[in-house]
Input
Amino acid sequence: MNQIFVSTEDGMEEPLWLPKIEDFADKVLVAAGYDDEEVSVLFCTDKYIQELNRNYRNIDAPTDVLSFENGEEYTDEEGNKWYQAGDIAISLETLPKNAEYFNVEQNEELKRLVVHGLLHLNGYDHGEEHVEKGVEPVCEMLVLQKKLMEEFKDYVIF
Output
């Protein structure tokens, strides 16, 4: 069983669909073969994610999703072992722009951003390859991402 903690940037109104993210992220982790992971997902503004991008990647621009891998294990008070996979930040302002670019519903783009972030937390990297409209992925991470997106194509977050 995974622990998924979902929140929004301070002062941001919580989307009605926010509670569904925990279930979706857990199902994706299980489908990808991961269990007993602890993950946090923060939904934020472009301004907030730009600050994170500037501080941690030296890129002074907003982005759609950032992942901060932790990779530490710990045992809780009940003796359960957990793997702190890390933290994901997703910009809710960039999400609709991406959806328009890829010509997909925002629901699908939101799922893609969550899947993408979760794969990064589990050691996957796509190097210089990025998801591009009309381009078939080649690297292991983006191929797995595509497979997971297909598996959860009917999952509705909003």
The chain has a mean pLDDT of 94. Residues 106-121 form the longest helix (16 residues). The two ends are 24 Å apart (CA to CA). Strands lie at 3-8, 37-44, 65-75, 81-91.
